[in-house]
Amino acid sequence: MMKKVLHSQSAKGAKGSAVIVGASLSGLMTGIALSKAGLKVTILEKVGANPRSGAVLQVDSGEIDRTKTAKFLRKVASGGVRSAEAWSSIQFRLRREAEADPKIDLRYDTRVQTVNQDNDSAWVITDGGETFHGDILVGADGYRSTVRHHVAPHKPNATFARYLIWVAVVDEYNIPEKYRPSPHAQKFSMPEGIGDFLLGTILAGINGSYTLGERRLGWAWYDNTQNALLRRLGCVKGDIVQHSLHAADIPEETLIELAEKASIRWPQPWLDAILYSIQTRNLVGIPIAEYVPDNLVKGRIAIVGDAAHLPTPLTAKGFNASLQDAAALADSVAKGIQGKSASESLLEYESLRLKHVRQIVQSGQSFSRSFGR
């Protein structure tokens, strides 16, 4: 069968073209930033347009953005909201911005199999046999990055930190009224457990309301006792994380054990939020991986976000680092990327980001070494 070849052509007036692998937060921000820098962008995402995540993020927490590109990205991602939000709310804003941009071609359900480059372009080949070319190629494809294998073949994999985080977001109306936090309660809490700990966050409702009963409760339970389970179910092989532990795959005995532990460890309202998540199987176990990069670039190909650097979530710096990656990359390629200037621009991006992102990951490794088992 003849393969269909699709070239990422430069639009009229564009300074070049880019193919981005991955349309999570990092990929969307990178695509938006590169488009603003004048490039024609194709973004390829292996799953559908509405991925689910129970993660909670604070996009605008007072960081000082030193470039116009970074300020623009934070404004788009935050929507002006200064408090923590569900990952899905942030992804929705970024996706809406990308879909409205005529210089961005956003394609879902498109899985990349092969990454390569030559002196003239970089390209990917999908599992459907399609080939997408660009002047540059960017890997924003997460902790199990395919693009990283090309950029850093000597160090292609993130390594398991030997613990997981159970995460979920619960609508407040599912919690008994007597346990709902007061309207003046702190939005973040961190109750201590017995050798483990919990991060709890009060979130606005889907409609943006903080009215009592309309809010949501996000929780993240750091758990270092499930490594044998993760290996038995194939979530971790050797030191490499393969996939998360999704609700449907969690054994019933594990859910019972979690409920018993929660009843001993956690105060209200987090106890009832956790118990509701367990009862409804509305939770995910995320095995935590870490990656300290040696390089971010190879020729015309670069990596950003979790594909480039993977710190423990406890650093609370992953999203901001991804945003700064996208801004630095866009600013580095803004003068044009035809010919040899493509690799030179990417090396400038690497010089701006490599030292800093290495320090971010390393700052969390002391915790992982003491907490992981």
From TrEMBL:
One Pfam family cited in the UniProt record for this chain: FAD_binding_3
Keyword Oxidoreductase belongs to the record: yes
Segments forming domain FAD-binding: 94-152, 287-362
Presence of the UniProt keyword Oxidoreductase in the record: yes
Coiled coil: none
InterPro entries noted in UniProt: FAD-bd, FAD-dep_Monooxygenase_BioMet, FAD/NAD-bd_sf
Keywords attached to this entry: Monooxygenase, Oxidoreductase
Record's protein name: FAD-dependent monooxygenase
Organism: Bacillus mesophilum
